[in-house]
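Structure, all two chains, one model.
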Amino acid sequence: MADPTPPFVFPEPKRTRTRFRAPLSKYRLTIRAACDNCGICIETCPYRVYAPGSRHPRIQDEHFCLGPACQKNSFCCVTRCPKAAIKVWPNPSFPILGDRRWTAELLAGTWHMAETGEPPHTDLNYRTGASGGGFDKLRLVFPRRRGEVRPEEVSTAIQLNRTGDHRPRIMIPLPLYLGGMSFGSVSIVSMLSRVRAAKALNTFCSTGEGGYPDELKPYDDHIITQVATGLFGVREETIQRVRIVEFKYAQGAKPGLGGRLLGDKVTPPVARMREAVIGSALFSPFPFHSVYSVEDHKKHVDWIKEMNPRALVSVKVSTPSDVDMVAVGSFFAGAHVIQLDGSYGGTGAAPDIAKKNIAMPVEYAVPKVHKFLKAEGLRDRITLIASGGIRSAHDMAKIIALGADGVCLGTADLVALECIRCHHCESGRGCARGIATTDEELTHLMGLEWGTQRIVNMYVAWQKQLTGILSRLGMRSINDLVGRTDLLAHADYAPKPGSGEEWE
Amino acid sequence: MPPKYHIESAPVAGRFQPITRSGVLAWEEGCLKCAKCVKKECVYKVYEKRALDVRQMIDSVDSVCQDCFRCVQNCPGRLISKELNPAYKAIGNSYWSPEILSNIWFQAETGRIPVSGGGYGGPFSGFGFDAMWTDMSEIVRPTRDGIHGREYINTSVDIGRKEMFLEFDGGGNISSPVHPLVEVPLPVFFDLLPWSPPPKRIRLAILRAAERLGTLALIPDADWLPDYKPFLGQALLYLKRGPAALRRSMIAGLRFVEIPDSPKVLWQRAFLKKEKPDLVVAVRLDLSEKAGDRVLELTRAGIEVVHLRADENGMEKGPKGLFIKDRLKQIHLRLVEEGVRDQITLLAGGGVAMAEHMAKLIICGADAVAIDIPALAAMECRVCKRCAEGISCPVELEGIDSAWGASRIVNLIAGWHSQLLEVLGAMGMREVRRLRGEMGRAMFFEELEKEFAALGRKG
C-alpha cells in the first residue's frame, strides 16, 4: 500500500566536536622542536588534522589521522615533513577504553559518526566488537556485482502498526526508535537530547520508568511513555498525551529482577517526578503484581487502549527460554509492537550476575520468535523490535536479517554523547562525564544543542550505511531484508566467501 | 516456614592494596602550571586523596581512579595517560582470571554483590559455565522477590539418603529406615584446599566462617588439630587414613564424614554406622567417564552422599576429560532414568569460582556445591601457587588472623547467597531444592548455537 505522506528528508549533519579539550584517538601525534612551521603538513593532509599555529602547526583533529598506515600515501605528513619533525605513535590510553562488546575502536568509530555524520575514514573497526559470538561473528553476505538499486531509491522506513485495526498507521523513516532511559538514571540534558534527536529523525523516544517531565511536552508526538512495574510518574494524562504507550514487563539487563535507582540519584526533582522520598533508593518490583496470566496482560493492554483511543501499544519483554510463547501471547492481548530486549542490553545499574547470565542474547531470541510467529501465521500482523546489544548499523542490518522489523537503541546514544563505557553510571554522583547523572554540576558538562546534534549525526551516518547495505543487496526496502538469514554467514561455521560474494 | 536465613556482613578491609587493571601516568615535565589544573577537577578526588602504600609501592591514584578519562582528555599539555597494568594480567591463570579474582576480592571486602552500570561488557559466551544462561519468568509465571525481603526464598538443602516412600507395620508405626540428614541453610560446603601455605590459621578461618554460615568444612583427618576442637560440629572430616584410625571420642562430636572411593567403601561405611548410626557418610569420587556407573552402583548399594570432584579448573583427569557441568548433567540424567536420583545426595565441586557457577552446577544436577579456592581468594590469595612449590606466600596467608579471614569468607558467601536469590527469584522459584536438575530452565550454548548456525549460509 502506498503511503500518502511525502518522503522524509533526513537532517543534514553538522560538525560537532568533542566536549573535551582533546579527542580520544587511536593514534597520537607529536611535533618536535625541529619544526620550522613551514605549513606543508597543514596543506598536505586531506583530513585536516592540522591547523595553523603561531610557533608550529596546531594538532586539531588527531583522531582523523590514519596512523602509520598513511605512510604509503603521497600526502603523508610524516614523510613529507622536511624537518622529519612529526611523530605518529599509538595512543597508550586507547586500549583501556571500552570492553569486549564496545571495543575502543567501535567507540571511536561511533564518536566519529556523532561528530561528522559519516562513517570513519580511518582504520577503526566500527562494524563489530570483540565479544567472540553473536553479531561479532555474523557477516553480511553481499554479491560482488553491485545491485541495480541506487541508494536514493532505497527506503529504510517501517510501519509500526501492522495489525489492521483502526488505530493510526505510524511510519518511521529509519527502522529504529530510542529506548527508555528514565529521568533519574540519565540527566535531563541527555534525556532531552535524545527526545529532540527523535523528533529530528521523525521517530520516537521512550521515557523509561521515571515519569514524564514537563520539559518533554513540546515533543509529545515523538514520545513513547513507559508503563513499568513501579508505575512511577504514570498518570492518565501522561498516557493520553502520546502516540505510543509501552508496557515494560522486563528489561534485558536485569531480566526477572526489579529496577533500582540508588538513593544518591533520587534528587529533589527526581523524587518530585516519581512521588518518592529524596535520597531514598527506589525499587521497581518484578513482575507487575496485577499480571499473572495472558488474560491479565490483555486487561492491561485494554486499559491503555480505552484511555487513549489513538495510541499504539508496545510490549517490552526479555528473552526467557519460552520467549516465542510470550510474543504470541502479547499479540493476542492486542499489542501492535513486541520488543524483545536481549540479555546484553544496557542499564543504569544491575547486578553483574544478571547482566551476564540471566536470559538469552537477542541474536538467539529474534530468529526463534520470527519463526514461531510465521508458523502461527501472525508474522505480518505484528512489528517485531529487537533491542539489547545493538551497537551499529551493521548490528541493525544483521538482526533484521535474523527476523526483526527494526531496533530500539539506548547505549549507542550514550556513546554518541561520549560515554566511554566505564560502567560507573551508578556510583556516587553518577557519571563523571555528565551523561547518566542528576548531579547539577555534572549535568552542565553537556549542552542540549550539542547532545541533540551528536545523536542526529550518528543516526544519519547509520542511515547512510544501512542504505548502502540495502543498495548493495539490490533491495529497495528494508522490509525485504526481514528474515533473510541466507544473507548471513557465521565466521565460525561457514567457509570463506565464495567467488561471487564478499562478506562484511 | 523455617526462620529466615540471613547472613550478616560488614565491610572488612584487605591487608593489601588491590591490583588494578590500569594505572594513571602523569608526567611533570612540560607542565604548564595552569591556574585551574584538571587534577583539581577530578570527580573522584583521585589526586587530592593521593597516598602511597610504601610497603607495596602502590599509588592510591590507580585504585581510586574510575577511568572517566576527563583528565586525560582535558590536560592542555596532554601529560596524563591511562595505561594497562602488566601486573593485573599476570594475576591467577586462564581459569582463575584477574576478573574472577577481583570479583571475589570485592565481595569479600564489602559483602555486597557486584553491581555496575552500562550493560554487560564481556564475551558473548565462553568455556564451561559461561556456555549457559539461566531462565527467567515472564508475564505468566510469577517471579519471586527474595532480595528485598518481600518473599522468602529458601536456600537450605538436606544432605543424606532419602526414602522414596514410607512403610508401616500392622501397628501403624513406620517400619522404613529413617536416615540421618545434615541440613545446611545454603548449598555450599568448603572443600579440601588444593594447595595452601601452612594451613593452620587458614583452616581455622574457614571453620569459623562455616560456623557463622551454618555449613561445614572438609578437613583431612591427618591434619586435625586440638585448636579446631570448638568447631567439631562444622567439620566434615575427610577420613583418608580410613575409619579405623578415627578416635572414638572424636566420632561422637561429628555429624558428617567423607571417605575416599575404594572397593572398601561399603565395609567402611558399615563400620562407621555401627559406631555412630546417625553419622552421614559421603564417598569422594573423582569425575571421569566411568563416574556415572560408579555413582549408580553406590546409589543402589545404599550410599547416602557422593561427593563428585573435578580439578581446580573444573576438569576431569585425562586428555578427554569433560568439564564438571557437562559430566554432571550426564550423571544426573542417568540417575533420573534409572529412577534413583532422589535417593542420593550429590555434592559437586572443582572450578566453582563465582556465584553463578553455584547456581549453574545445581541446575546441572548437584544438590550442593563444594568450593575451595574462593575461600582462599576471599583472604586475598592471588592463585600464584607459589605455596605449592614451597615458596613464600606474597600475601602472607599463613599468618592471617582467623577472625579476619572468617569475616572475609562470610562476606563472600553473603554475596553469593544474595546472587543465588536473584537467580532463583528471576526463575520464579522459592526453594533451591527445586533448582536441582532443572535443565529445562536453562539455555545451553551448544543447543542455541546449533539452531543459530543452521540459519546462516553454509558456503
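Chain A touches chain B through 106 residues (CB under 8 Å).
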